[in-house]
């Protein structure tokens, strides 16, 4: 299982968790621009994936996030 780089939620990442023969859920969303990623992390130097809630909200609302 993976941990969201923004909120800490635990979720399955197809690439990081080695799920075979299935693309990761995130491939269904548009790519996140580097500047949007920076905004999503509030300038923190963190690497890793985002959970479905954070990534979907960021791509849908131009990085306007829940909570």
Characteristics of this structure?
globular, two-stranded antiparallel ribbon, disordered C terminus, about 70 residues, 2 helices, mainly alpha, single chain
What does this structure look like?
The protein contains two helices and two strands. Strand 1 and strand 2 form a beta hairpin. It has a two-stranded antiparallel ribbon. The protein is mainly alpha-helical. The longest helix has 9 residues, at 52-60. The chain starts with a strand and ends in a 7-residue tail after the last helix.
What's the gist of this structure?
The chain is mainly alpha-helical and 67 residues long.
Following the backbone from N to C, one meets helices and strands in this order, namely: EEHH
- With strands numbered from the N-terminus, the spatial order across the biggest sheet is 1-2
Helix content: 10-25%
State the total count of DSSP E strands. Answer: 2
What's the rounded overall pLDDT mean?
Answer: 77
N- and C-termini, Cα separation: 23 Å
Proportion of β residues?
A: 5-15%
Question: Largest sheet, described in full?
Answer: 2 strands, antiparallel
Radius of gyration: 12 Å
| Gross morphology | globular
Alpha-beta classification: mainly alpha
Give the uncertain stretches in residue-range form: 63-67
Count of individual helical segments: 2
């Amino acid at each position: 299982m993976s941990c969201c780089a923004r909120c800490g939620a635990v979720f399955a990442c197809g690439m990081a968790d080695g799920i075979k023969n299935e693309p990761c859920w995130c491939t269904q969303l548009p790519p996140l621009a580097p500047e949007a990623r920076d905004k999503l992390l509030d300038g923190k130097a963190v690497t890793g994936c985002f959970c479905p809630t954070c990534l979907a909200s960021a791509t849908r609302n131009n990085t306007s996030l829940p909570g």
